[in-house]
User: Fold these one by one.
Assistant:
Number 1:
Amino acid sequence: MRRYVDRADAGRRLAGWLLGYRGADPRVAPLLPAGRAPVVLGLPRGGVPVAYEVAKALAAPLDVLVVRKLGVPSQPELAFGAIGEGGVRVLNDSVLRHVVVSDAEIAEVEAGQRTELRRRVEAYRGDRAPIPLTGRVVVIVDDGFATGSTARAACLVARAHGAATVVLAAPIGAPGTIDELRDYADDVVCPGAPAHFSAVGQGYDNFQQTSDEEVGTLLRCAEHGFTQ
């Protein structure tokens, strides 16, 4: 695959694969209620510069989807659930059937992640209200799919918020992960799927970390007509 210059370049190129969600594609148009554009949600932090370009191309509103995975105390990388804004919590029953996690431990893990979730929401969005997702087509964008754990959690949280159709999109991803994500999303768009995938950064010339400040700036620019 041809490498991306940076996340903005990746977003512009990814947008070309998503133009059907402007309603021009007859297979997609019926999914857009009353001709409304989809809602584009960036996964902070690195997914937001990519999502900004996608939202701009689709003439769609942009927001962040802040999710926090709930990890098993003895195996933090193994998620037994996820939380989102508005008190949303989704639990993975298949994981909980195979690990021993008490109600007290679940509450403790959730409380810690709620604190971090609130901090991030305030840093990214300030006092602006989130865009309602009920009945909407939602395009969730990240800068890449490695293990897919955050993308899976994002799908569950978006559906818990009432999203009618969930699309996952990223410029690059591990082929196996892309296949697994199709069980969670209605559509998965990922044009870069190198056979020898090692890390998301391999697809970028510039893969510097995205700051909280940059996320906030992009959201404000999108709110004011994508003017920077």
Note: Residues 103-125 form the longest helix (23 residues).
Number 2:
Amino acid sequence: MDEDEYENGLNALHLAAKEGHMGLVEELLERGAAVNSPTKKGNTALHIASLAGQSEVVQLLVKRGADVNFQSQNGFTPLYMAAQENHLEVVRYMLENDGNQSIATEDGFTPLAIALQQGHNSVVSLLLEHDTKGKVRLPALHIAARKDDTKSAALLLQNDHNADVQSKVRGGAGSGVGWSQQREGRGWEKWWRRSPKMGWMRQGVEQ
């Protein structure tokens, strides 16, 4: 263990989970290691394994009682970390084992929002299949608009997201303002010009 790991409060289970050492993780749990023991930043072994994409360790930890919706100090869940790093199989396993994708960080970002921001389209598609409609704090469609990302916007609209939904995050594009009220914004106009086939946007701008 190096000095940074020691100062961050990582224990043997955290380190074994990070490196994907299945046998050691299992041995530590058998000897009484607390599966949900957090680091100083509030990350459990499941957070760390999810961030590292250690899918087998993730499955073992969940089967041994790890809390799939445990939030770190910043509000990160294991599902959020897996979505952020584009670990598709970990995301899939979390969703199939009660991972709650509506849980947001202290900044209001959900797993879907961070996956959109990072351009992880396969993760975005998987999250949409499990339906977050109306449950995220930062509407996914607004993330796509802020990024000038027509591909993600089209994907979201295909999954019945409401184009008129308003963002609730302070300082974000569309915060407290409807689509029609943003028609003078440079970003929105550019996004519309690059999306001439999206009739819903024309309606939103002109009304």
Note: The two ends are 61 Å apart (CA to CA).
Number 3:
Amino acid sequence: MIKEKRLELIKKIVNDKKNVSVKYLSDSLGHAESTIRSDLNDLNRAGDIKRIHGGAAKIDDVSDSKFVFFENRLSEEINEKKLIASKAIKYIEDDQSIALDGSTTCYELAKLIAKTKLRLTVITNGLMVAEAINNNPLITTILIGGMLSNETFTTEGSFNNELLNEVNISTFFFSSRGIDTRSLTDFNIYEVRLKNQILNKSRRNIALIDSSKFGSTSTSTICQTNDVDIIISDDKLDEKVREKFISKNIEIL
């Protein structure tokens, strides 16, 4: 497909749906995510769409796009994320201090945690994660400070070093944009740096990765795959892919 036609199609999709992710456009048009990002940047410069974190929004809907974008991400592979969360909660025990990133999969886990009678301290950079557990009086929530990303509802930046140096973390639950047998990757360098900090502080690291992320590689490396203690995925993960990880002594559920 020539670029001009692709740009017109992208513009039409964004205007029709009001808010879309790079992944959605990539899957719909059959082009690499890197190509779609470049196209969105071109359309943004031309004033045809508004570029937002991880996707694009219709110009006259930008003011409403922030929460809608989070909702759109949440709806992607929603059943898989719920299944992963139901597996992950079995690794949480009373009186633990745990960390959750701001991913939509950890948001699903947070909603399950909020329904328990576990006494926990939860450290997170995710506003939606914090909101999900905030009404449970048995949970102490520590929100990591930093610059607020209005699209992902997470804090980011280098303002959190002192806090992380002072807390003990039993288990860190986190997600990534891509994973293979070598590494876990993400496109936001600030998120990557924060996750790397928490990984180094935590006694156990559990990656919550839905099957659509396997085989994908993003911009920055969070950690090596063998730095993760357990990977939890969903039932759609190809058995051959699962066997590759197991053959490298990587525990994957």
Note: Confidence is low (pLDDT under 50) at residues 61-67.
Number 4:
Amino acid sequence: MPSDSRTSPPARPMRADARRNYDRLLAAAAEAVAEQGAEASLEEIARRAGVGSATLHRHFPSRQQLLEAVFRDKVEALCARAADLAAGPDPGRALATWLRAVAGHAVSNRGLATALMRGAHDPTLGATCHAMITNAGAGLLARAREANAARPDVSITDLLTLVNAICLTVEQEPDAAAHADRLLTLALTGVHPVAAPAESGPHPADATKQNSLPSGSAMTWNAP
């Protein structure tokens, strides 16, 4: 019996008004998830977007599909941000700024990742988005290393793990975004003052530690 070689027809592009509604729904859903978590009311999301519930369900037949679209949209925005920052003159600042954007993305998810794992409509979404973020950050880190603004032994996995750990620690706090940004700044800059008075000199223990570091091992970050 010959195999069926038919393929599904390509999806038709959205009309301009449908595209506007889709974008409004994504923005409203992202805002609602940041405020209320992944169980935010679909009716409230439709109201914020200025559309009816029928329009929401026409674009997103299930809550899961809406949440996946929100997550994918955020990841694409982070990748676009990385590309913009890569064109800047200060690779160290670019990497630090992007890591702060990743932290902002993480603390605004509020249970989104857990909800996505419960019953993914697109089983490849997690791996795809992880690869996108990793690749975007790896490019910024490579530029920072070339500019001697990042240690050669630091990987993008190290940095993303650090950001994730910080965000998990503060996610239940009322001002999680500000606290995550402060902790990330401390992690990137260290706890020593930026510039010690020249006449005082380094603490003997600090001088010993500094002299024991291999050349080029320092990581420098300029807070944006």
Note: The CA atoms of residues 103 and 168 lie 10 Å apart.
